[in-house]
């Protein structure tokens, strides 16, 4: 297996453990001291815009994009790190950010739609 595939599987396993209260973990919206998931924040998709367009978050945050518009959209990394696939109205996509950095993304259906996630070590 390729290293990137192994990393994706490891991250998926870690997220499923912490996202499932029945498995003894906590949901991603709960703070876990010293744990990998800090909080869950949302980006609203509507009228061919991401709102907010730029979002600054702490490490170990899950970002959820929710399509509140009437059109289908994607959330696609400019560096091909992730792609949500097509999100129809009402659908959402989640991504866990654990590394400090700037992550730019766009909608492949509407190329003028652009967004940016800035991940910092500590906001406060």
Category by helix and strand content: mainly beta
Outline the low-pLDDT stretches. 8-35
Radius of gyration in whole Å, from Cα?
15 Å
Oligomer: single chain
CATH H-tier superfamily of the largest domain: Cupredoxins -  blue copper proteins
Outline the biggest β-sheet: 4 strands, mixed
Total DSSP helices: 1
Explain how this protein is built.
The chain has 124 residues and is mainly β. The protein folds into 2 domains: 1-27; 38-120, Sandwich (Immunoglobulin-like). Helices cover 14% and strands 35% of the residues. It has one helix at residues 3-19, and strands at residues 39-46, 49-51, 54-58, 61-67, 76-77, 92-97, 101-106, 114-120. The strands form 2 sheets. A 4-stranded mixed sheet has the order 2-1-4-6, with no helix packed on it. A 4-stranded mixed sheet has the order 3-8-7-5, with no helix packed on it. A hairpin with a 2-residue loop joins strand 1 and strand 2. The longest helix is centred in the first third of the chain and has 17 residues, at 3-19. Residues 8-35 have low confidence and may be disordered.
List the helices and strands and how they pair.
Elements: H1 3-19, E1 39-46, E2 49-51, E3 54-58, E4 61-67, E5 76-77, E6 92-97, E7 101-106, E8 114-120
Parallel strand pairs: 1-4, 3-8
Antiparallel strand pairs: 1-2, 4-6, 5-7, 7-8
């Amino acid at each position: 297996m390729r290293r990137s595939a192994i990393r994706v599987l490891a991250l998926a396993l870690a997220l499923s453990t912490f996202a499932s209260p029945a498995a003894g973990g906590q949901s991603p919206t709960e703070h876990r001291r010293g744990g990998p998931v800090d909080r869950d924040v949302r980006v609203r998709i509507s009228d061919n815009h991401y709102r907010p367009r730029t979002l600054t978050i702490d490490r170990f945050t899950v970002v959820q994009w929710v399509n509140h518009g009437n059109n289908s959209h994607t959330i696609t990394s400019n560096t091909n790190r992730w792609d949500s696939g097509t999100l129809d109205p009402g659908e959402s996509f989640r991504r866990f950010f654990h590394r400090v950095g700037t992550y730019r993304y766009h909608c492949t259906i509407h190329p003028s739609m652009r967004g940016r996630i800035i991940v910092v070590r500590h906001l406060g």
